[in-house]
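Entry 14. Structure prediction run on the chain below.
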Amino acid sequence: MIPIGTLGAVVLGVALGVASFGIAFALGLRRAVLAVLLVRSSCDPLFALTQSDGRGMGLGAVVNALVIILALLFFLESPALIGSAILPWAAFLMTALASVIGSPEPTMKALRGFFVLTSYAAVFAFPFALIRSRQWALRCLTVVMCSSIIPLAYAFVELASGSAGFQVSSTFGVNIFAHYLVVLLALTLFLLRSSLVSLSPRVGRWLLLYQPIIVILILLSGVRSAWVSCAIVLIVYASTVDKRYLLGLSLVPLLIFVPGVEERLLDLQAGWLDYGYGRLNSYAWRQILWQSALDWLMENPSEYLVLGYGLGSFEHYLPMFFPRAVERVGAHNVFLQIFFEMGILGLLAFLCLFVALFAKLKIGYSFDKGGAMILMGLALAQLAASYSDNMLDYLAYQWYFWFVMGVVCAWYKLHSTPQPVHTSTARGLILAPSTGEDTV
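Output returned:
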């Protein structure tokens, strides 16, 4: 007899496949992708209503699966384009799939973790099939900017009502919203300074007004890893693109007077975690957690260091090496989490993924130095935040991060590839008279 959970998953999968083809037929693949990216930033409250226990297959899982199916449809349409985009992800995804087999978690839960990672690769690959012209590249980036309208408006409603305190979460969780804002900040800088983008003065003024709003909301989120990411993006921008921003960076010490910022920066009890009978500040308990996990790994068979203990295994084994914690916590370090769950192979594959990303961005350095440096700064910010935060778990943020990266990488590839000249155009150039004296 088939378990109800498995039967439900099969029925949902079939229904989702039919719905995906229906959406693709009604809207077209390209419009369907843009529609998902436009509304995804506002959907978490709705998804929470359909997944009250936090474990089942809610509407969010349906949308994640839809994204993967759309990517498969694009692959069938343009295998070379999508294949070239997925290639940097191949080793990482294969390692993740292999770690599903050895996971101590139930198979369906481990598979959900794998499909989440696959969705990140899917949204990175979309632009390589979408972007055939400058207009489509701008359209994709405009969709990302427009996706922020509802979250930012909701954040100000939170502030006005006093429900947010000094940690604004908007339509996301606090950490996800803060890092999403960092992507928006980098995108506004890119649109203003990229040599490939030509904006009207009115649009440029709106983007300039948008920037301080984004920075203020990042501060009010109280997420220190997002503060560091924001600082990295601005420092890279000010030092390589527009040195006038260095003057703004000199005002950073004054931020300590912003309500809530001083507490997060100076109060050692901010972000504390109960650990046995004592309290540890946020960095102290992270250090103990990381050292405990590494010690536990070294005490166990060496073969697990190569392939890891399987997806989801960090939280599964947490009570064994961090027993006095009164609540379940993530690794708060992407590199340690990948090493624990996918071993050395997974960690190397993850680092190679970012090496490939920097290589794709470097293509644009010769003709779009400003834009390339801004996106490199954003990629560097993600790596820095990965040192102390559960970045792989922030699905909505990861989608927008990888989609923006995919758009710019695809645009650079399009711009740097010589465009074939149409036969009739070439014939016209050859036969066209060079001077007026040759005309009849």
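The CA atoms of residues 48 and 54 lie 8 Å apart.
Filed with the rest of this week's runs.
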